[in-house]
Design a protein that fits this description.
There is one protein chain. This protein has 132 residues and is α+β, with helices and mostly antiparallel strands. The chain has a single domain, classed as Nuclear Transport Factor 2, Chain: A (Roll), CATH 3.10.450. Helices cover 27% and strands 45% of the residues. The protein is built from 4 helices and 6 strands. It has a 6-stranded mixed β-sheet, with helices on one face. The protein is globular and about 40 Å long. The chain starts with a helix and ends with a strand. This is SnoaL-like domain-containing protein.
Amino acid sequence: MNRADYERYAHAFNNRDYDAVFDFYAPGATIQFFGVDLGTRDAFKRFYSFLHAHVVETLTIERFAASDELVALEGIIRVEATSDLTAEALREQGLDQFAPIKKGEVQEMRQYIHYHVANGRFTSVGCAIIPA
């Protein structure tokens, strides 16, 4: 995977094309963020459809490195609430680990993401977020 491939992935994510995003993952890939398992297409689409019904989330890549086995990047995740995302709504989705956000609020977080790669597709992903 190279920078152009990853830019296509980020473009699909920023444009909410969940099928295109999921196609970058190998079958059986480990996709887990903050206690949420997104390892199936349905789980991936369900999570992001719910989240993006309340927020606009975009990734801006600041630093990027890649090899045949690893993609590592540093970027800014920007989340802008388009409607209130309440603690109750999060709880109903089993997402108690996420913080509520009110319409109009903007959060920016520095994110470090590592993807393991095989045959040009992601096999696992891990990330750490630090407030920007």
